[in-house]
User: Fold this.
Amino acid sequence: MTDALRLVEEVAWKIKRMEIRGATAILRASLEAMREFALRADDRELGEHFRRAVDLLLNARPTEPAVRNALLYLTYVFRESGDLREARRRVVDASQRFLAILDEALKRVVEYGWRRIPDGGVIMTHCHSKTVVNILVRAHREGKKFIVITSETRPLYQGRRTARELAGSGVKVYHIVDAAMRWAARRFKPDLALIGADAITSTGVVINKIGSKLLALVAREFDFPLYVATTLLKLDVRTLAGEYVPIEMRDPSEVWPDAPSGVEVLNPAFETVSPECIDGIICEAGVIPPHDVLRVFKELYPEIWKVATQQE
Ligand code: RI2
Assistant:
């Protein structure tokens, strides 16, 4: 294996082992890895291994359509280039451009999101979403006072990261086990729930960390709204053509490393949250209803839409 490809493989491995985690961080790392690959590979490597580099990153986590959208775009640019010299330049430019689109989109999500946080309120969240954390930290910096309830998010405890980051920024946090979500809602009467997204389908279904639907149902029962904060770059365009978003099943040992024989441990990483449970998607176009995601995506990203729907 060549050095340039090894670098991509290392990033893919870190994504697989969740050293790099969170949909946005995975997208960013994948784009940076492809940019570095294009810069470091010699002409022969670039020509021979481009597809392999893309596949390594695509297969690192199956439930990450933002990565797929980005890598299909880079593949399109690569294929449309006249020669390898042009391909290198265009892949590097396209990676940079995509990263800039991502940064701009996230800025806007935060800009719309922080205004939705009620002053003096209680907010529930689940897992770790950088997008959600950025919104809450911004709301705090804008002078809003609120409490956040974080759930630990078994088996990998990403909720602790959320709790640590929020508390580190001065936000008051209560941390609970996942099974205490309903208890917490009863006790604290939250004003809203705010979660991130790993994937969005053409009909506005959101796929997020296992436990998200539980939170959505708790929000329904106790009558507070659930918002999803995400860029629309996570839309899985394949769902328009009838496909399902694959739900990643992770290693059972994350749940119970020495489970007794006869016990089969199941470890689904994500689950769906249906649009009826979602009061709004806080995205780069503002706060929109879930059924509008496809229309808005096409409007915002016509080029990405074209490429993602045309390629296999
Ligand atoms: P941002 C995470 O997945 C969580 O499910 C989180 O809600 C989502 O990514 C989005 O995160 P994982 O990588 O893109 O922990 O908002 O499995 O950071």
In short: The longest strand covers residues 121-126. The longest helix spans residues 84-116. The beta strands are 121-126, 146-151, 172-176, 192-195, 199-200, 206-209, 226-229, 270-273, 280-283, 286-288. The chain has two domains: 3-109, 118-300.
